[in-house]
């Protein structure tokens, strides 16, 4: 199976969530199931069914995180050659040439992407258009909202 790129911070977040699910959430839901069973008839016991459903969700998420981590290729942007090109993990300041708006994105793995935090997936149209470009270069991006003309203002190699 192909390795999936992930930043060091992204992999650490996944490991933390996995640890919490295994050590806190899983034992708590097992206790909830035991308590619900003590209430008697399981057929009409809403607490039992809700706890079992929660247990299924937790077990599924644990398996999902384990699979992602086993296929993850952690990339530390601080160890990459800082040659002024856009690569996975860098933070890029852009200016929209059409309206002058400035925006900052960090290019991350699919599971880390969060537009509210300024993190875009390596597979997004903007990230794909930026990869390999240098500061000052114009970039034309075909997005679902139409064509955007961007200029790379600064590329930062920060963790």
Could you describe the 3D structure shown?
The protein has 159 residues and is of the alpha/beta class. It folds into 2 domains: 4-75, Transcription elongation factor, GreA/GreB, N-terminal domain (Helix Hairpins, Orthogonal Bundle), CATH 1.10.287; 77-156, Chitinase A, domain 3. Helix content is 39%, strand content 26%. It contains 3 helices and 7 strands. It has helices spanning 8-38, 46-70, 125-130, and strands at 4-7, 72-75, 91-96, 102-108, 119-121, 138-143, 146-156. The longest helix is centred in the N-terminal third of the chain and has 31 residues, at 8-38. It is elongated. The two termini are 27 Å apart.
CATH superfamily of the largest domain: Transcription elongation factor, GreA/GreB, C-terminal domain
> If helices are DSSP runs of H or I spanning 4 or more residues, what is the number of helices?
3
Which stretches are low in confidence, meaning pLDDT under 50 for 5 or more residues running?
none
Major sheet attributes: 5 strands, mixed
Look at the structure and give the mean pLDDT. 91
Number of strands: 7
Into how many domains do the coordinates divide? Answer: 2
The percentage of residues in β strands lies in 25-35%
Give the oligomeric state.
single chain
Secondary structure category:
alpha/beta
CATH class category of the largest domain: Alpha Beta
Radius of gyration: 22 Å
Overall shape: it is elongated
CATH domain fold name of the largest domain = Chitinase A, domain 3
| Corresponding CATH architecture of the largest domain | Roll
Helix percent band: 25-40%
Strand order of the largest sheet: 5-4-3-7-6
